[in-house]
Amino acid sequence: MGYVQESLGKDEKIIKEFEVHWMPYVLGAFAAIMLVGIPFFLSLIMSERALTSSRVVNKTGFIARRTAEMKLSKVENIRFSQGILGRILGYGHVEISGTGSGSVFFGWVKSPISVKREIEDHLPNG
User: Fold this and answer.
1) How many distinct structural domains can be found in the chain?
2) Which residues lie closer than 8 Å to 112 by C-beta, 6 or more apart?
3) What is the Cα–Cα distance from 10 to 56, expressed in whole angstroms?
4) 115-126 pLDDT, tens digit each
5) Residue 108 is part of which domain span?
């Protein structure tokens, strides 16, 4: 059972979990061979990104855990970015910003346009 599942509130359910694109795994594997990217590679494996019925959640880390969460009612803007290679291979980054200075960042996510659309479809009054 992952962090997102364990942290669900009463009557909260996971709507969609987002996958990391295969590209950073290849980069991480290449870097791990060089003995430089082992923490990066392990961090990718242990990352969780999800949309629940009331929030977006990003958990990273394999020894130390870092989470960023935002209630859907607080989301103000969703941006995504893709470089040339990301457009060709289908990966990118999604940043969800909310009221105040909070934000949740999904890096190296598969199909960032679909992630953006999925979150927008579940926003209150969305």
Assistant:
1) 1
2) 80, 81, 82, 86, 91, 92, 93, 94, 106
3) 16
4) 999 999 999 975
5) 14-121
Residue 91 domain flag: yes
Provide the mean pLDDT of the chain.
Answer: 90
CATH number for 49: 2.30.29.30
In a domain, 4, yes or no: no
| Whole-angstrom distance, CA of residue 31 vs CA of residue 29 | 5
Q: Is the pLDDT of residue 1 over 90?
A: no
Q: What separation in angstroms does the CA of 74 have from each of 49, 56, 66, 83, 101?
A: 18, 10, 20, 28, 11
Asked if residue 126 is part of any domain, the answer here is no
Q: Is residue 6 part of a domain?
A: no
- Paired tokens of 10: 């009463």
DSSP classification of residue 19: P
**65 versus 93: which is more confidently predicted?**
93
32 CB-near residues (< 8 Å, 6+ apart): 38, 40, 41
